[in-house]
Amino acid sequence: MPPPTQTRKRTFQRPKSLSDIPFRYCPGCGHGIVARVLAEVVDELGIRERTIGLAPVGCAIWLEDHFEWDMVGPAHGRGPAVATGIKRVLPDHVVLSYQGDGDLAAIGTAEMIHAANRGECITVIFVNNAVYGMTQGQMAPTTMIGQETTTTPGGRDAKRDGFPLRVCELLSSLEGAVYLTRTTITSPKHVRATKRAIRKAIELQMQGAGFTLVEVLSTCPTNWRMNPLQAMEWIEKEMASYYPLGEIKGA
């Protein structure tokens, strides 16, 4: 007898804000999850036609091919500075600067701090995977103590290399920064929390509240020399203990 006919219901579909092309990220990389969630939020808020994204140098740069809204490619670390100019010229638009830790927390530290201090109405999506992902895994400002990288093969040493930089905590004293939160993508629960955080950050921007930033602890299995499952577990066991999840500053 032929098998009974089964009715299948589609529960998810590709957001209209994402191009129908494969992601260019390594297997197990968290950037694809963060990008998907961001695209869903933009679609749900109905703001795609007035959204402008910035994807500076680093793994974020691939998103110029994936997001179906206007994109700008600023120089390395200059996302908040360029975003400031765009937002001031087009205040009715939603401006999103999507940056990695090597970009935002190293060469772009000054731009980040001063944009936050001025209370620029932009939203930064800060993907923290604790290494320079695109350039073969060198130590980044967020690299953990003892973490092996291509430039710290014996592990990061605090006396030699300093301590990992907690960006949200660093910005929390600035009056212009109104919403700072840290999430991750290691489970469906955390992915949903990331989506809620991104939505809140964008809504606050639309209200003219000030500078908003969502930090997402993300995986880099290739440069961590782990499989994807090990990378997820490492975030929960190691990164999240130093970078606690939750709202650092709420609005």
CATH C-level name:
Alpha Beta
Order of helices and strands: HEEHEHHEEEHHEHEHHE
Judged by helices, strands and strand pairing, the structural class is alpha/beta
* Span between termini: 62 Å
CATH architecture: 3-Layer(aba) Sandwich
Based on CA atoms alone, the radius of gyration comes out at 18 Å
CATH topology: Rossmann fold
* Total domain units: 1
Strand order of the largest sheet: 2-1-3-4-8-7-9
* General shape: globular
Oligomerization state of this entry?
A: single chain
Question: What integer is the average pLDDT?
Answer: 93
In CATH terms, the superfamily is Thiamin diphosphate (ThDP)-binding fold, Pyr/PP domains
In DSSP terms (H or I, runs of 4 or more residues), the helix count works out at 9
Our estimate of the beta-strand percent is 15-25%
Question: How much helix is in the residues?
Answer: 25-40%
Q: Major sheet: size, sense and barrel closure?
A: 7 strands, mixed
**Any low-confidence stretches, pLDDT <50, length ≥5?**
none
The number of E-state strands comes to 9
